[in-house]
Each structure stands twice: as C-alpha cells, then as structure tokens.
Write a structure and sequence with these properties.
Layout lengths: L6 H12 L42 H4 L31 E8 L3 E8 L3 H14 L3 E7 L3 E8 L2 E9 L6 E9 L9
Antiparallel strand pairs: 1-2, 2-6, 3-4, 4-5, 5-6
Length: 187
C-alpha cells in the first residue's frame, strides 16, 4: 500500500531540508543611539549603509563614491523682527522675539514669548487687529491653545497662542504672507 503525503506536509519537509543552519551566526550589534540637538529636537541622521569594502574583494559603486563631509550645526543667530513685518500687526507688550522662520511662498513666521495669560493675549490681537482694519477670517479660543486668522488687502496673518510646557511662558506665533494670484486659472 502506498502512502500519499499531503502537499502542505511535502512543503514543510522541503523547507526543513533546504533551510540553512544559523547555529554559528552571531547577532549584529544594535545601531548607535541618536544624539539630541541643543535646540531640544531629536534629529536622527541617516547612517552610511554597510557595504562590502575592497578588503572583502567586492567594491560597490556606493563605496567608490566619495562621501560628503558632515554639515556643521547651525550657528545661533540673535532673533529680531524682520524688516518686512507688517507695520499694522502689533507686538504684544513685553513679548520677546524668540525665532524667525522663513517659510515657502515668501511667508514668514515670527515666534514671540511672553509672560501673560493666554486669554489676554488673544483678546489683545483680536481687538487691535480688527481696530487696524484687519478682517477676522478664522477664530478659535481654547483653554491651552488659541488661533486667529486675519486678512487685509492681499495679506494673510495667522496668530496662534500656546503655552511652552518647559518654561510656562506663552508662545505667540505670527505667520504672515502676501497672497499671490495662482499661476493657472482656477477650475
């Protein structure tokens, strides 16, 4: 009498027969832990791939190309109000410029810090900007974070107020840009 092996059983037997033994292999060392930048953000830079070297008898195109030198960390520059900051956008009393960011499409973001209550800062910007002819496009006032969006002529200005969890100070972000016509017709 002939015994028939089911296809699944045959596949398992073949897999066991052709599997390689890993008894003598060693576990590779874990990658190095990323280092923290002074600004408080952790940035993980990609590491060079492990490629065979000439000592192994194999040279890949990646190993033959020279690698770029690492870029030095950015230098700390004193933050100050940009020259193109809209003249009719107020700066909250006692607020200090903490950072200035240039964004795509010629937008700028100015980060201020202040020691005041968030509702007071929100009311200040809402009342002062409206009094200067800015129209409120969006408005949200929450317990931990607030946001206002204004428009005037072709300029859009967004003001957000939040709390820095490390210092307890309020962070006021004023982002502004000039709306440009689209380079194509709207559909």
């Amino acid at each position: 009498m002939m015994h028939r092996i089911p296809p699944l059983g045959l596949a398992v037997l073949l897999a066991l027969a052709f599997s390689s033994c890993t008894c003598s292999s060693s576990t590779p060392a874990p990658p190095a832990a990323p280092t923290a930048r002074p600004s408080g953000f952790n940035v993980v830079k990609p590491t060079a791939r492990q490629v065979p070297s000439a000592a192994d008898g194999v040279v890949s195109p990646e190993a033959a190309t020279p690698r770029e030198a690492p870029t030095p960390p950015p230098t700390q520059v004193e933050a100050k109000l940009p020259e193109d900051f809209p003249a009719d956008v107020p700066v909250f009393e006692g607020a200090e410029v903490a950072a200035v960011q240039q964004l795509p499409n010629k937008a700028n973001n100015v980060i201020f810090t202040a020691e005041a209550d968030a509702p007071k800062i929100f009311k200040f910007y809402k009342d002062d900007m409206r009094g200067s002819g800015w129209a409120v496009a969006q408005e949200y006032e929450g317990k931990e974070q607030s946001f206002l969006s204004f428009t005037k002529d072709n300029v859009v200005t967004n003001v957000s107020v939040s709390k820095d969890p490390k210092t307890g100070k309020k962070v006021i972000a004023v982002m502004y840009y000039k709306e440009e016509p689209l380079p194509f017709p709207e559909f």
